[in-house]
Input
Amino acid sequence: MNSKISINRDNVVKSGDPLRMQVEVEKSRRGRIIAEASGLFRVPQVIEFDPDRGIAVFEKIDNLVPFQEAFIFDRAYRTAAHRLGEALSVIHRDLELPDDMVEPLPAPLAGEGGEVFLHGDFSVYNVCRDGTGGLVIIDWQMTGVHGGKATRGTPCFDMIWFINNLFYRPTLRHFHARDMLQVARSFLEGYYHSSPEAPSPAMLADYAESFFAFKRPQRKANANWRERPLLFLSHRLAWIFIRELRQEKLIS
Output
């Protein structure tokens, strides 16, 4: 059952598989508590939820702009990326779910090392800027691209899923690879400076290499005629990112 979203004047209504929606609502509620305690970001309030029908009513936060579109590649973008890395670190540290909501990442994405509860779809479209310039994190359900169910696994998944979305939205600005890498660097610095238990850069690089290799054939097959000529730029960015991560140039 695919999720459906209706954006209304005063609220946002989302419906989907009842079990998945229960998890998303629980994660959203707990994420909102974390957000208020940290002061780093906002999460829309869950106004109402029908667990039998899988229908949730969320607070509508006006003037939201997805992260990818909210900033040009300047100091403001890098500052926001650093704050976003801090926010993800706090989520990984503080998010907890009941035992009956624990669902591991599927094998190709599982990775090694310690595990945390995940946001699950920490993409450049689910992290947003509001009208005041603050960060808002929405859509706390595991991405449907990878099954839509997982709630727990390596923190590398959320970290690389954000980097993946940052790099693999091919546009002409990808010719400015250094700008893209600076944003990635700011994001990782924010995460690592806030998380003494973060995976080592070497472990993150290993995960990134495995992740991008796993995704590459599917990307090639699914790219449309507009994306295909620019896809090599995204591959190049991923390669540079992994190389510099291994050299610890992306984390100071």
